[in-house]
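Workshop exercise sheet. Pairs work together: one partner reads the sequence aloud, the other fills in the structure field after running the prediction. Swap roles for the next sheet.
Pair: D.N. / O.F.
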Amino acid sequence: MSGDNSYMRDRLLKVLQQVTSQPVTIGDEDSLFESGLLDSFALPDLVAGVENEFSFRVPDSDLNPRKFDSIARIEAYISEHVQ
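Structure field:
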């Protein structure tokens, strides 16, 4: 993993911890929703945190739990949308 990816991951984990108010101890591919860390009410908070931390806008059409279901999926989404 490159330094940039590690830095992005650290920033993402910080956002997740702020939203969930608990340590994030699941694997990168594990479901944040099935694990109980997130629910549908927390999704807008997570997206807002990601938008603020990474300085980009998530369109309403992307507000789908499947896009933000795991750390790996969120990292891939951020990588696609952040220059």
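Discussion prompt: The chain is about 50% helix and 0% strand. What would you look at next?
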